[in-house]
Amino acid sequence: MSNLTWTIGDVRVTRIVELEMASGGTFLMAEATPDAIRRIDWLAPHFAEADGRLKMSIHALVIETPSKRIVVDTCIGNDKPRQIAAWANMQTRFLEDMTAAGFPPESIDVVLCTHLHVDHVGWNTRLVDGKWVPTFPNARYLMGKAEFEYWRDEGDSEVSDAQIFADSVQPVWDAGLVDLVAPDHQVCAEVRLVPTPGHTIDHVSVAIASGGHAAIITGDFVHHPCQMAHTGWASHFDYDKGQSSATRRRMFEDFARDQTLVIGTHFAAPTAGRVIKDGEAFRFEV
Ligand SMILES: [Zn+2]
């Protein structure tokens, strides 16, 4: 498998895929029926099948700057007890693929979680001799302070959320590897966080700037490019649907104006492109 890469000035971003899928969109957004998806004619072939199913991906994005190696979002992980059957007790070669791409776990300086949902924290830890241990032993794990506190305190109310926090967040906290940060935290000269709340309480995106070029790693304020055509299509999993819709409109306006390279956290290959103003809405050009 060849990995997609993008260059932004002195920075390189590499996509490491864990899982790719095509499925009916209503599992994610009520409005995303096959008919509605087929009516957005620029989605196929990259982001939708001809029958109107959505093509999506779960992947990590490795940012290499002149001084740091940063992993953004750590997918689902292996061996984890999970409610979604296809995500339970996974046995993928994700870590081997990451190492083969030139990124052995011990070489990672920073792990960044855009938010603490199940498909963004999984490889924070791995199972060794029956215990969850940090996968990236030399990394600082950056998490939004309000995001961390929400899942630490609210996670108890839902068994599945408590499980996710317990096996994928608590062990890195206990190992002293977590830094709780503000949603506009500057990670290094080229990389900073951008607040994009609504999907979760303290969701962040990751902005990259180098040599006069700019890119953004979305996280889940947008799950799929169909939300550029319909910014009001909110995910069932959005914490505040009004806020997530406002965030999408605001961010897409900025990206269209600034010609930002947009790298989607769940966008199928080719995964990155430019947002173009399209009447009252937007489209994605790859
Ligand atoms: Zn996600």
Largest sheet composition: 7 strands, mixed
The CATH architecture category equals: 4-Layer Sandwich
- Which percent range describes the beta-strand content? 25-35%
- Anisotropy-based shape: globular
End-to-end CA span: 21 Å
Structural classification: alpha+beta
Average of per-residue pLDDT values: 96
CATH class: Alpha Beta
Across the major sheet, the strand order is: 1-2-3-4-5-8-9
Q: What's the SSE pattern?
A: EEHEEHEHEEEHHHEEEEEHHEEE
Residue runs with pLDDT of under 50 for 5 or more positions:
none
* Tally of structural domains: 1
Helix content: 10-25%
The CATH superfamily label reads Ribonuclease Z/Hydroxyacylglutathione hydrolase-like
Please, could you describe this protein's structure?
The protein is α+β, with helices and mostly antiparallel strands. The protein has a single domain, classed as Metallo-beta-lactamase, Chain A, CATH 3.60.15. It is built from eight helices and 16 strands. The strands form three sheets. Strands 1-2-3-4-5-8-9 form a seven-stranded mixed beta sheet. The chain has a seven-stranded mixed beta sheet with strand order 10-11-12-13-14-15-16. It has a two-stranded antiparallel sheet with strand order 6-7. Strand 10 and strand 11 (191-195) form a beta hairpin. The longest helix has 18 residues, at 241-258. The protein is globular. The protein starts with a strand and ends with a strand. The relative contact order is 0.16.
